[in-house]
């Protein structure tokens, strides 16, 4: 297929090229455009039917969009912008340098320009930043037949026609009607008779996470978003919600792995950007490991007396780190899915406490058995019984500490407005490392009389 | 609200209770049912209108469903099952013990029973397991007006009426028409004239991940699923796709944190189940840390000569572990989003190699500076220049090794059919821990002439 397209392009057989490209889904079409030489891109873009061209433009990455915009005449840019939905235009603008963004906004009609600027003004993580203004708006006194006529007239320019919103004269949201309701009602019924008055909506200032949770819970195709006076300002469609769900999950995963999140996909991110997103936490975590170094140094003379203690340090620290991140990661994910809240802290605490006791006991018994059977009996390492007991007790205490810190830190972080995800594995690991060493050396000093 | 409901229930004011509950969205209604005493649950469930009752039943967790089913008469169970969509019935059945599952299936009508059994037969991770059979099926020669009539007649029992599928006499999928296409066409046009013949579909045997990627890419409200002969067997709706997206992300996050994934939400999982999902990896990782213990033991006599070396072990291991999991987690997420594939291995390798060199240089220089300025100049630790050099070189080598293993292991795992996510942080950490110690001691032996 790619070769076919390149061949037709090279031979300038544009009619055939157009008919092939026009059959494609925009998301697939973009992948073929990526193999076309950059200087031919505008040429190919120009032969696409207007609507398909705009839909394809939306699917492009920002580099390709920038390239095209810089090649567009004002008229061409205006044509594309006029085909885009407002939220799509906003998405494009957000990725562009200021000068390009200005040029795009200047080509929009005055009404659209106002809406673009309004959406751009909402904070990045808010529901407001996700809305589009092209929804079907109905009045309650009209009939189903009128509603169909209205949808037929205005539908082509709406992002979805499957959910229509009923507003009063002050634009307050008073009801919702699905296309299914309309189709299954008789033409003479009024909207008021069939609309659902129990409207579930988000506020422009709600967090993106809340939006995701609402789509997850209510299975909507679109979520209405209102301002402080409960006036409808826009809707969020399910396809955009899916993008946000994927982005937020990726962001959480990156933060848990001590990466500064970025918007671009892996292969589109340059080496330097990837480096820049990884080095801050690596550096911070490396330097914070200074504490463990100091603790070990200060215990050096005692370690020299019982050198066997040394060999268990990595194992103790890893076990603590793994135990803690199991709890923190579970709690962080549950927080973001809305499964737990601050008020559940005590339940979470008790649950993790009991789980940690179980895990701690199994691990310390397994460790004791391993030292006695594998290290001593099989390999003749000659580790004393007291050392084995010190290590086992340390494991129990470390696991309990790690799991409790791991579950509480994210909840507390969220409560005081910090990012719970940053509290995940990397940060907790450093804390648990330090404490587990202190526990180890305290037990060692006490039990071995060092 | 909760108190109001409990009060009405206690005073047996069922008419008022019914009118309050009937206004609620099923997803909200379920939350109120959770506060109702178990022995009153069936009573309240019985007063709900049939359709709402079924919709609410779907939203319940499996414990509440089981409780109700055991209290249902056969007639009641049949009524609920007949209101459910086939995929919903399958979801309920999958969570039930065999005897309850049998009873549910026996109450379905023969056609539904066949469909349930077919869906249950698809592998758990396949597109087939996600389908429902209640889609709108059109023939190409009928007119738009006929199509509307068909939708009006059969629509109430369809999971979505917004996308209709056109099949030929052998049930082969030949086109797709959206409700928007229908609404914006004139009544006398035929389906063949307006349908999109470039149908994008999944196969029953496709992986869930593929389904997610298709929803992500094409912004569908429903995805058709065909069998090996390209006959349409069912559709996956976007609300179910969202559930799968969330479940898969949670599962990936859990695996990355060395947890055996489970289906239930955190607070609904018992202490013992939580323990059981965490202990296998903790135990495995603890025991595999035996290697690092042995390496340290075998180096004991040399460490005794330069005890300063000991203090850096945790820092080196953590830095290696963090570097590796940054790469592995990024690659795993990109694999599951479909951003990278096996054919990108070489690009990924070169990219990670360059990133690792950059990170490694910055970290080792920072480490050298920290030892010289903080440890020595400020705290007078007296760490020798050669030890600082050994540590810094080890960091560079460890970071490069960790990042390369971290990026390649998941890609190779996926290629040979293993789960790339299990290759993430915990497993890679153990490998990197071992290798980083070997590197450290090799450099130390060579440079310090031990």
Summarize this structure briefly.
The structure is a homodimer of 450-residue chains. The first copy, chain A, is 65% helix and 6% strand.
Please give a structural write-up.
The structure is a homodimer of 450-residue chains. In chain A, helix 5 packs across helix 7 and helix 8 runs antiparallel to helix 9. In chain A, the strands form two sheets. Chain A has a three-stranded mixed β-sheet. Chain A has 22 helices and six strands. In chain A, a hairpin with a 5-residue loop joins strand 5 and strand 6. With 450 residues, the first copy, chain A, is mainly α. Chain A is 65% helix and 6% strand. At the A-B interface, helix 11, helix 12, helix 14, helix 15 and helix 16 of A face helix 11, helix 12, helix 14, helix 15 and helix 16 of B.
Radius of gyration from the alpha-carbon trace of chain A, in angstroms: 30 Å
One letter per element, helices H and strands E, the order of chain A comes to HHHHHHHHHHEHEEHHEHEEHHHHHHHH
How would you classify the quaternary structure? homodimer
Residue fraction in strands of chain A = 5-15%
Largest protein interface, residues of each chain: A-B, 111 and 112 residues
> Overall 3D geometry of chain A?
elongated
The percentage helix of chain A is: 55-70%
Number of beta-strand segments of chain A: 6
Low-confidence blocks of residues of chain A: none
Mean model confidence by pLDDT of chain A: 91
List the strand order in the largest sheet of chain A.
1-2-3
- By DSSP (H or I, 4+ residues per run), the number of helices of chain A equals 22
């Amino acid at each position: 297929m790619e070769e076919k397209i390149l061949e037709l392009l090279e031979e300038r057989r544009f009619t055939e090229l157009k008919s092939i490209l026009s059959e494609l889904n925009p998301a697939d079409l973009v992948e073929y455009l990526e193999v076309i030489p950059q200087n031919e891109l505008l040429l190919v873009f120009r032969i696409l039917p207007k609507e398909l061209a705009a839909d394809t433009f939306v699917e492009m990455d920002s580099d390709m969009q920038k390239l095209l915009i810089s090649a567009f005449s004002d008229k061409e840019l205006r044509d594309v912008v006029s085909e885009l939905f407002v939220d799509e235009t906003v998405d494009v603008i957000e990725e562009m340098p200021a000068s390009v963004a200005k040029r795009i906004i200047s080509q929009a009609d005055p009404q659209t320009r106002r809406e673009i600027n309004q959406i751009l003004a909402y904070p990045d993580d808010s529901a407001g930043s996700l809305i589009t203004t092209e929804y079907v708006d109905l009045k309650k006194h009209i009939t189903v037949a009128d509603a169909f006529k209205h949808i037929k007239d205005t539908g082509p320019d709406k992002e979805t026609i499957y959910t229509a919103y009923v507003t009063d004269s002050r634009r307050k949201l008073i009801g919702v009607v699905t296309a299914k309701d309309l189709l299954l009602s008789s033409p003479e019924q009024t909207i008021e008779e069939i609309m659902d008055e129990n409207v579930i909506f988000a506020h422009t200032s709600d967090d993106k996470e809340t939006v995701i949770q609402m789509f997850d819970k209510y299975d909507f195709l679109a979520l209405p978003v209102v301002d402080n006076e409960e006036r409808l300002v826009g809707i969020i469609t399910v396809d955009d919600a899916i993008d946000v769900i994927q982005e937020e999950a990726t962001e959480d995963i990156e933060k848990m792995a001590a990466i500064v999140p970025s918007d671009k996909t892996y292969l589109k991110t340059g080496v330097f950007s990837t480096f820049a997103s990884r080095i801050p936490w690596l550096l911070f975590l490396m330097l914070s490991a200074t504490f463990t170094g100091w603790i070990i140094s200060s215990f050096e003379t005692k370690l020299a007396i019982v050198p066997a203690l040394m060999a268990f340090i990595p194992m103790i620290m890893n076990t603590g780190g793994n135990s803690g991140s199991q709890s923190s990661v579970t709690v962080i994910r549950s927080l973001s899915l809305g499964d737990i809240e601050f008020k559940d802290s005590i339940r979470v605490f008790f649950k993790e406490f009991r789980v940690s006791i179980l895990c701690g006991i199994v691990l310390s018994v397994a460790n004791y058995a391993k030292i006695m059977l594998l290290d001593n009996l099989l390999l003749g390492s000659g580790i004393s019984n007291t050392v084995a007991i010190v290590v086992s007790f340390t494991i129990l205490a470390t696991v309990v500490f790690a799991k409790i810190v791991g579950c509480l830190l994210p909840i507390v972080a969220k409560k005081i407005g910090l990012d719970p995800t940053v509290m995940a594995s990397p940060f907790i690991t450093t804390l648990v490392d330090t404490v587990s060493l202190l526990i180890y050396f305290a037990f060692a000093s006490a039990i071995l009389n060092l």
